[in-house]
Design goal:
The protein has helices at 40-55, 96-109, 130-133, 237-244, 246-258, 262-272, 276-281, 285-298, 302-309, 322-332, 334-345, 350-359, 361-369, 377-402, 405-413, 416-428, 432-442, 450-459, 472-487, 506-517, 530-542, 567-588; strands at residues 74-77, 112-128, 159-174, 180-181, 186-187, 193-195, 206-210, 219-233, 523-527, 547-552, 559-564. By secondary structure, the protein is of the alpha+beta class. Helix 8 runs parallel beside helix 10 (322-332), helix 11 runs parallel beside helix 14 and helix 13 packs antiparallel against helix 14 (377-402). The longest helix has 26 residues, at 377-402. The relative contact order is 0.06. Mean pLDDT is 86; it is low at 131-154.
């Protein structure tokens, strides 16, 4: 007979002899376990130890380290593992029940808040296996005649030697009354951690072994699900809970404002500032900004409001938040709001900024242009559009300077939706000068024709405002260029000339340019030293020229052999087909992008 909980790991094999009878019971606990009284002397000693923990800075980890602050919390890991549904103050297991009862009494004595929480534990251990112990690192296994016994990779987890890394994250917090505490995931610092039973004594729910790889490895990663008691002084409760849940902190400050206590609200806000950057970095930025904007708009202290908003980014700013930016404009002025937008813009990668420009900027500027406010909200849109346009010009310049070939064209074409967003934003901001600047850039010879074509196609066939975007010149320009290209005769079969790239300069570049430009010359044998060969290799590859290049390794110096390929003709034929398709599409849309009387058209 065997009895076990249903959640135990087990295996059922086929019954080949006799019978298997299974009885399943649902066990229901009623009431809580009664914890034994703790002697007064033990309680006093325990209270003193907890008080000392909160007052004593942890020792420096390395020589010369500055003294750290005493830990804010006590985090005591329990001896048993619990699931989220099984964690309860009334149903603690074994020795956990009297220990938690004692800590609750200590919390009353020290005027501390106390909670239960689930603890996700991750540990990395250095390991030792039989192969390493035998000292057989002489690579004998590489010898074809080696017939010794190799270590078995499936022989089980090796012996743990030393804990090299540990990380604990707390979640699912329960107050003494059983209510759940709103909290983001909270990391546990070494100085605040206590336990009776180390995690290594438990069976991990997941374990991974990395064997020795020469200069790394021979480590074991383990993951555990545990539970903990968390306790902190009530006088520090606001700051500690704010670190765990910045959204909760913002709601508390907003509550003080609603209750008519702006002084307390400002004091609490200023207590957030020393750790606010870290708190925002670990939170859902968009959700937290949505909660923080109303608070910043309600604070009279512009400097405090600025620090509160500083850690966010444009990526967190959604169109639904536009009204709160108008409120900030009313409260703190245009210059203050403009600085916040510039500050947010510096925190994103190029790809994220392009996506935000294309998807969010037009909705924001449209909302601001339509806002019925006493302030000039289109001026705020103008600040953002101008700042973003300056950034995009620099980004396009970086692409043109540091990429070539199809990668360059693709990267520039990817800016098309952002360019269109800036055109729309300029119109909403009532800045026709900015709108003209973007349109003029699309007509520039420095941009591939694919970029303005992408902008026109991004407008879409069903866009009602197409005629008001000032794109008639762009449409006419694309039609003119494509028609001129298609009017040129097709390349003769004996014309092998290739336009040299613009960076084909210097002594080496001049020789390569003459070869590329020669209509009748298809092959070039060029004795070159290795460093100079590399320059030519890189130039051809960067611009994806239809030229095969290889080195003939005879003589001194070796000879670089260049040969133009049939890809030259195949590419041009494909280009002409694409040009014809684009021109047909443009002709179908004639009149969509122009509006009678429009100065931009």
């Amino acid at each position: 007979m065997l009895a076990f909980y249903a959640d135990c790991h087990h295996e059922v094999r086929p019954v080949k002899q006799g019978y298997r009878v299974v009885l399943t019971y649902k066990l229901i606990r009623q009431g809580g376990a009664q914890a034994a009284d703790v002697p007064e002397r033990d309680l006093a000693e325990l209270a003193g130890a907890v008080r000392a923990l909160w007052r004593t800075p942890p020792p420096p980890r390395w020589a010369g380290d500055t003294a750290a602050e005493p830990p804010d919390r006590l985090v005591y890991l329990l001896d048993h593992q619990y699931t989220q549904s099984g964690l309860s103050w009334a149903h603690l297991k074994g020795a956990d029940a009297p220990r938690v009862a004692a800590l609750r009494k200590v919390a009353e004595r020290l005027d501390a808040e106390i909670f239960l929480a689930l603890a996700d534990v991750y540990e990395t251990w250095s390991a030792e296996d039989d192969y390493q112990e035998q000292g057989r690192w002489d690579y004998a296994e590489d010898d074809e005649d080696f017939d010794g016994d190799m270590p078995d990779d499936d022989a089980g987890e090796p012996a743990l030697v030393e804990l090299t890394e540990s990380e604990i994250e707390l979640r699912h917090w329960l107050a003494p009354d059983g209510s759940e505490l709103p909290s983001d995931a909270s990391r546990v610092a070494d100085a605040e951690l206590c336990f009776t039973r180390p995690s290594a004594d438990f069976t991990p729910f997941q374990s991974e072994y990395e064997g020795y790889m020469g200069n790394y490895g021979n480590t074991v990663d383990r993951w555990y699900h545990r539970a903990a008691v968390v306790m902190w002084p009530r006088e520090r409760a606001f700051v500690i809970r704010a670190r765990q849940s910045p959204r909760w902190a913002i709601e508390q400050v907003a509550g003080r404002l609603k209750a008519g206590d702006p002084a307390q609200a400002l004091e609490w806000t200023q207590r957030l500032l020393p750790f606010w950057n870290r708190a925002v970095a670990g939170a859902n930025g968009a959700a937290l900004l949505r909660a923080t904007l109303p608070l910043a708009a309600a604070l009279d202290d512009a400097e405090t409001a600025a620090v509160l908003l500083a850690p966010f980014s444009l990526q967190n700013l959604a169109p639904k938040m536009a009204p709160w930016l108008v409120r900030l404009l009313e409260r703190h002025g245009l210059a203050w709001c403009a600085e916040r937008l510039r500050q947010w813009a510096t925190r994103e990668t190029s790809d994220l900024q392009l996506a935000w420009l294309a998807q969010t900027l037009p909705k924001l500027t449209h909302a601001w242009s339509a806002a019925a406010a006493a302030v000039d909200s289109p001026a705020l849109a103008a600040v953002l559009v101008e700042e973003r346009w300056n950034w995009l010009q620099k980004d396009i310049g970086e692409v043109q300077a540091h990429t070539g070939g199809s990668a360059r064209v693709k990267a520039l074409v990817d800016t098309g939706p952002a360019l269109l967003a800036l055109i729309r934003g300029s119109r909403d901001a009532r800045r026709p000068d900015l709108q003209r600047q973007v349109v003029d850039a699309l007509l520039s010879a420095g941009l591939p024709l694919e970029v303005p074509l992408r902008v026109l196609r991004t407008v879409g066939a069903d866009t009602p405002d197409a005629a008001g975007l000032g794109l008639a010149r762009v449409h006419a320009h694309c039609m003119q260029v494509l028609a001129a290209r298609l009017a040129r005769p097709e390349r003769p079969a004996d014309d092998w000339s290739i336009p040299p790239p613009p960076d084909c300069v210097g002594e080496l570049g001049d020789v390569l340019a003459r070869f590329l430009s020669a209509a009748s010359e298809r092959r070039l044998e060029w004795p070159l030293a290795e460093a100079k060969r590399q320059v030519i290799h890189q130039l051809i590859d960067r611009h994806e020229l239809p030229v095969r290049h290889e080195t003939r390794r005879s003589g001194r110096p070796y000879t670089l052999v260049l040969e133009k390929t049939d890809a030259l003709f195949e590419r041009e034929a494909a280009e002409r087909r694409r040009w014809a398709k684009e021109l047909a599409w443009l002709r179908q849309g004639e009149g969509r992008f122009s509006r009678p009387g429009s100065t931009l058209a």
